[in-house]
Amino acid sequence: MGFLQGKRALITGIASERSIASGIAEAMHREGAELAFTYQNDKLKSRVEKAAAEFGSDIVLPLDVADDAQIAACFDALGQRWDGFDILVHAIAFAPREAITGQFLDGLTRENFALAHDISAYSLAALAKAARPLMQGRNGAVLTLSYLGAERALQNYNVMGVAKASLEATVRYLALNLGPEGIRVNAISAGPIKTLAAAGIGGFRKILGHVEQNAPIRRTVTIEDVGNVGAFLCSDLAAGVTGEVTYVDGGYSIVGMTGLGDGE
Ligand code: NAD
């Protein structure tokens, strides 16, 4: 019996089979969770429906997090199918390409800054707020995805790093707010993985190569690596963990210096 047997999970953020959300869905399905899905727009609808069918689900709901009415409608519709649910996976981020390439200030505008924060950080709090009535008293869990750029200044990541810092702070405030209601809130800070969103970041191929050479495990992580930890964090096995950012990056973030050679 899987460790998510009897749990129901809503998965956002599938754009392709390479999406981190797909890896999380795979692991949660394997561990026995019942799944529902959202898609951002009509272009992605059939792709998400196909993924859902592979996981034995016919609950596929529209959700553009920029639109308050869609957020409300999504949880209304979910409530028609499920009287409650246990797990909310937030795997959503966006910043315009010019804001995540080149120098921080060159791509910076009030609009880009606001948009990155709205879609990538505010949306976590907005979804948690809308999900709250359906997640009461079930030992539930919310999971989001962050990146090292929240803590360190990384070339090209720019305004998305600032938005991820806001996302990680949002995780802590949500954890404090929702803990007494039996809802835990955690983030995974994932190492770089080639997905559609990542392709927008300047120099992404070089980032992958750098991590492969310098991470202690000498490889980049996969959506399966992230999915397994995500499934664990949302399960009762992690009942004592909330408000945390767990790194799934092959150890890259702990390295200070390498490459000096033996005895040097
Ligand atoms: P992806 O492109 O597969 O997924 C991004 C998702 O965000 C897409 O499904 C897209 O539809 C959704 N999205 C964007 N704007 C939206 C909106 N307005 N409403 C609803 N959905 C919207 O890429 P991914 O890498 O799987 O990204 C998932 C999460 O993982 C993101 O938060 C990303 O920042 C984070 N992350 C990715 C990496 C990486 O290297 N790929 C590393 C660390 C963290």
UniProtKB/TrEMBL annotation:
The lineage of its organism: Bacteria, Pseudomonadati, Pseudomonadota, Gammaproteobacteria, Lysobacterales. Belongs to the short-chain dehydrogenases/reductases (SDR) family. FabI subfamily. It catalyses: a 2,3-saturated acyl-[ACP] + NAD(+) = a (2E)-enoyl-[ACP] + NADH + H(+). GO terms for molecular function: enoyl-[acyl-carrier-protein] reductase (NADH) activity. This is Enoyl-[acyl-carrier-protein] reductase [NADH]. The active site is at Y147, Y157. It comes from the Bacteria. Substrate binds at A95. GO terms for biological process: fatty acid biosynthetic process. Pathway: Lipid metabolism; fatty acid biosynthesis. NAD(+) binds at G13, S19, I20, Q40, D64, V65, I92, K164, I193, K194, T195, L196, A197. Gene3D superfamilies: Enoyl acyl carrier protein reductase, NAD(P)-binding Rossmann-like Domain. It comes from Pseudoxanthomonas wuyuanensis. Keywords: Fatty acid biosynthesis, Fatty acid metabolism, Lipid biosynthesis, Lipid metabolism, NAD, Oxidoreductase. InterPro entries: Enoyl-ACP_Rdtase_NADH, NAD(P)-bd_dom_sf, SDR_fam. Its EC number is 1.3.1.9. CDD domains: ENR_SDR (cd05372). SUPFAM superfamilies: NAD(P)-binding Rossmann-fold domains (SSF51735).
